[in-house]
Amino acid sequence: MFLSRSASVCARRQLAPIFACCGAIVLLAGCATEPESHVVSAPPPPVPNRQVVTTTTTTTPAAVTVPTVIDGNPATVTVATTTPVLSTTIVTEAPPPVQSDVALARPGPKDVWLAGYWTWRDARYQWMTAHWELPPSSGSVWVPPRCEQQGNAFKFTEGYWN
Asked: Which of 5, 19, 35, 124 has minimal Cβ neighbours within 10 Å of its Cβ?
């Protein structure tokens, strides 16, 4: 069954308002309902209560005699006694694994290579990068820092020139 051209134009004009109303009802009905609420993910876990107890002590070991030329005449040598100051920190948290450092070219024949190490500063471990350092005097020897486990704690002693 075919309609004439004028009949089909007339049918379109009569049905157009009906289609427009149905479309508006569908659109408004879709906006009137809210989607169901779903939890996409759980909230982040609380920050762990990480309490690190530290104790820092400063001790002075026995005096070490280091000959030092005080005045410009090498025939007159005055012996000065230097006493290195040791800093010891006890922490209840183990240090991270040691990092590897690349040894750069030695800047001078008297420079000494100080290996990198972890130290406890500002309530956390900090990596002290390895570097070349000139000793304070010709007879000085670098005593490297050390970390020793003592029960549930870790005793860290800073390095020093002796």
From this structure: 35
Q: What pLDDT score does 81 carry?
A: 47
Pairing relationship of beta strands 54-59 and 86-91 according to DSSP bridges:
antiparallel
Q: Are 124 and 96 in contact (CB under 8 A)?
A: no
- State pTM to two decimals: 0.49
Tell me the pLDDT band of 68, cut-offs 50, 70 and 90.
Answer: very low
- Residue 11, burial from CB neighbour count under 10 angstroms (0-12, 13-18, 19+): exposed
pLDDT of 115 strictly over 80:
yes
d(CA 162, CA 148): 20
Residue 92's Cβ-count burial label (10 Å; 0-12, 13-18, 19+) is middle
Total domains present in the chain: 2
Beta bridge partners of 117: 128
Pair (97, 157) in one structural domain: yes
